[in-house]
Amino acid sequence: MLEKIKLLIDYYEEVLSMPHRQEIARELRNEDDVFLLLLYSEMIGIPNPVYYYTLELYPYMIEKFHDWHLRMGMEKSPLSGIRCC
Amino acid sequence: MSGIIVALIGMVVFALGYRYYSKFVAERIFRLDPNYVTPAHRYKDGVDFVPTNKFVLWGHHFTSVAGAAPILGPAIAVYWGWLPAFLWVILGTVFAAGVHDFGTLVLSVRNKGQSVGTLAHRLIGQRAKILFLFIILILVLMVNAVFAWVISNLFISYPASVLPVFVQIPLAIWIGYAAYKRSKKMLIPSLLALGVMYLTAIIASRVDFLQIDLVSYFGGEGAAGLFGLGATSSAFLIWIIVLMVYVYIASTLPVWKLLQPRDFINSHQLVVGLGILYLGLLFLNPEMTAPITNANPDTPWLPLLFITIACGAISGFHGLVSSGTSSKQLNKETDARFVGYFGAVGEGILALVSIIAVATFFANSDEFFATYSSFTDANGAGLGVFIEGAANLASGIAIPPDIATTIVSIIVVSFAATTLDTSVRLMRYIIAELGVEYKVPALTKTHVATTVAVVSSAALVLLPEGPKGFGSGGYQLWPLFGTANQLLAGISLLLIAVWLRRQGRNYAVVLIPMIFLMFMTLYAMFQQVIFEWSWFGTGSNTLLFVLGAIIFVFAVWIILTAFSVLTESKNTTIDDEDRK
């Protein structure tokens, strides 16, 4: 019985927290997008004095970049500088 | 006949519809494939595209679509007797709403999770998209006006509900803060918020000075109010202005600050409300005292019944939710049947209890005819009767009637207020989008678009003159709201039909409800516009005439588009591009 009530409470939390989690994730993602833009502004033509250093992060961001362009509705990578697919 | 039996018959039909009809549609028509990679998996991003358990998704889908409209429509339609309303709700849910909600979900899942608006553009063309935008614009404008009227009317009729409703606002902001900034568990804060609201309701029901009764502040119904208006008119004016200021602020705030936590409290209220009503029904076992059919209505049930009950039988708004959010979170394609079809059934259950609450309220049929003496009276009185009827059912589980009345009116007002907030927000987006389309950059600014939305809605709700004077005639817009909603459903059904046709499948299951809906909408608008609202009609009204005529033209437009798209040569079969 106790198990069932626990399951019910879990279900409840899940239903109600879903849209909230979504909003938090959206805000985080927006911040991330701005951050990426700052790091790789050179690629869209905005001079960036620390580009040399941010380029070291390149291997870590390829996967994220791939997700980003899919999210934006582009099947293939729009930038020739980043070849993810 | 006992109310329990009516509810049971309804439930059995819903269960059979889900068990057999939705299975048939899922397997033979939509041919759901458990191995299909849904957009939630394909475009998984942890934000919009998130594979979600079907029960959780259903819970979310249902709480998004259920609101005040499935309560108000049936409460008015009982005017023609409870049987026609009952039949339309159960048959509409099984054969129209279920297929519509389920179909838009599948259609969107098979098309990268795109929304109905985008799909209209892709499947039919640019014109369809503009038509779609305009119909939504009219729909949200109606929603704003009707719900502003509903809330003002309830504030005036049930002054005890004012304070608890305003208490909900800081509570919602607090919950939003608790949930986001500290990511706490939700159960305790929500129960606390609900407890505080209902406690305020109980106190306000019993303590007179906590009831904010504007009409009595002016000195009662006959007294003079502001600007030479009567007391009731002034009360309407003040409430509508207060509401419009509120929605202006609410709809420009970020979603998570107020709208979402309000929605969140409302989903608890939905469960509490449905629980109270069905439990009360079970313990009270009331008789259906309203007549089965109304032998001498002053307005014929055909075709108005089918637009008076929109939400609860079929509603285009569900397609926006199905294709807008739910389709991006569907874990397996076969879950669509449960989420979509059963979501419509949930709304049907809400409409059903609304019919029962109204039909069991009266002592006998004479009393019924005194309240529902004409269709216009039914429009004005429907919601009030629902609240009294619901309080009557609540007495079955020993809740005193005055407190039950306040609580039920709070539930209805909260639903209406959230809907108002959402629809002003939507209207703002649409105005901005039209601004882009027609190159009017000023319209794309948040505050300009919101001002346009709020002012036009306020103008619309204040213009129709009702029996209680200025601002009290907002309910006259209800048939227009119903038609706009049905038109939207018509477009969605058309899109599903086009898609099915291009897959080479049998599309009769969506075509028949679509033809039925379009026919009823055209018929109703023709009748209302020509014989009722035109300058030689019985209730001549320029505003309603113009709006009705616009909707009529849109309906004709949709039918022509449907005809041309569905009769074009069959060579255009396109493959499921996502199946690759």
Structural overview:
The complex is a heterodimer of chains A (85) and B (580). Chain A has three helices and no strands. Chain A is mostly helical and 85 residues long. Chain A has one domain. Chain A is elongated. Chain B is an all-alpha fold and 580 residues long. Chain B has a single domain (3-579), classed as Sodium/glucose cotransporter (Up-down Bundle). Chain B has helices at 3-29, 39-42, 54-65, 69-77, 82-109, 116-123, 126-157, 162-181, 187-206, 214-217, 231-252, 259-284, 301-308, 316-324, 335-359, 365-371, 375-394, 401-437, 446-462, 478-502, 508-533, 542-567. In chain B, helix 7 (126-157) packs antiparallel against helix 20 (478-502), helix 9 (187-206) packs across helix 18 and helix 17 packs across helix 18. The N and C termini of chain B lie far apart (56 Å).
Secondary structure layout:
The complex is a heterodimer of chains A (85) and B (580).
Chain A: H1 2-39, H2 51-54, H3 58-71
Chain B: H1 3-29, H2 39-42, H3 54-65, H4 69-77, H5 82-109, H6 116-123, H7 126-157, H8 162-181, H9 187-206, H10 214-217, H11 231-252, H12 259-284, H13 301-308, H14 316-324, H15 335-359, H16 365-371, H17 375-394, H18 401-437, H19 446-462, H20 478-502, H21 508-533, H22 542-567
